[in-house]
């Protein structure tokens, strides 16, 4: 009986180990934000190296910008997008949680206003 219990614990530990691995948001993603200036479509191209996240954000109103200060911690990602809108520099601070292999629930803050979107992996 002891061997069965030990084996069961080992199997459970191995199976749950998959949940402990860091999320992998590498690749291309698409999202739509409802904002104060209307709907904004975005694509993101994420590159992951260890716990560092870099890449490019392309917004329908802001154009293409580099992602900075990107980090991955388990299934949570954070990054910053510094963009220009109507000649003004604006900073978007993002927090996201990978809820599935092809889904990230994103929240971004701009001028203390939160905006939410679900990003899906682009095929």
Task: Lay out the secondary structure.
Blueprint: H1 2-20, E1 27-35, E2 38-49, E3 52-59, E4 63-73, E5 76-85, E6 88-100, E7 103-110, E8 113-121
Antiparallel strand pairs: 1-2, 1-8, 2-3, 3-4, 4-5, 5-6, 6-7, 7-8
Describe the structure.
With 123 residues, the chain is an alpha+beta fold. Helices cover 15% and strands 65% of the residues. An 8-stranded antiparallel β-barrel has the order 1-2-3-4-5-6-7-8. A hairpin with a 2-residue loop joins strand 4 (63-73) and strand 5. It is elongated, with a radius of gyration of 18 Å. The chain starts with a helix and ends with a strand.
In short:
This protein is of the alpha+beta class and 123 residues long. The chain has one helix at residues 2-20; strands at residues 27-35, 38-49, 52-59, 63-73, 76-85, 88-100, 103-110, 113-121. The radius of gyration is 18 Å and the shape is elongated.
């Amino acid at each position: 009986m002891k061997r069965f219990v030990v084996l069961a614990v080992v199997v459970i530990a191995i199976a749950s180990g998959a949940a402990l691995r860091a999320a992998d948001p590498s690749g291309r993603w698409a999202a739509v934000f409802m904002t104060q200036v209307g709907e904004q479509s975005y694509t993101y191209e994420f590159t992951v190296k260890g716990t560092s996240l870099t890449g490019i954000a392309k917004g329908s109103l802001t154009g293409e910008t580099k992602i900075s200060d990107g980090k991955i911690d388990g299934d949570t990602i954070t990054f910053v997008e510094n963009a220009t809108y109507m000649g003004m520099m604006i900073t978007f601070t993002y927090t996201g949680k990978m809820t599935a292999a092809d889904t990230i629930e994103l929240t971004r803050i701009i001028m203390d206003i939160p905006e939410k979107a679900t990003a899906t992996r682009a095929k």
